[in-house]
Known about the structure:
The protein is mostly beta strands and about 130 residues long. It is built from 2 helices and 6 strands.
Amino acid sequence: MIYAALTGMARHVMRELLTVRVRTVEIRSPNNFFTLLNSEPGDRIFLTESSTTDIVPGTTGLIAGIRALQTITHRTIQSGQDYYEESEAQAARAQLQLVGVGRVRRIASFEPGTPLTLDVDEVKYCDAR
């Protein structure tokens, strides 16, 4: 199945999503921000610890559904006697719910300014009797 990807996720975020199954993340990275900007609640995405350039067939990660999505703006103001500086940064908050574990089959699309999309197989674990 084709999924948009969030790459370079912190190991502790991935572990927490595995154990708690629901986690809210705040994304500031431009590549990941574009991914969430083009997503909607109900969509499924693929999360991996690997950076965008390190993803190859066989890379593992988590498949998660987006429960809620919000775009926010952070404003920072610095001033002194002789200067006034204001800056803004956009971020996205997404509440994710674990669906399963996945493995990359192939890279479907990797164009600048667009979300990285991957063909991912869901990995099923079965108990042998």
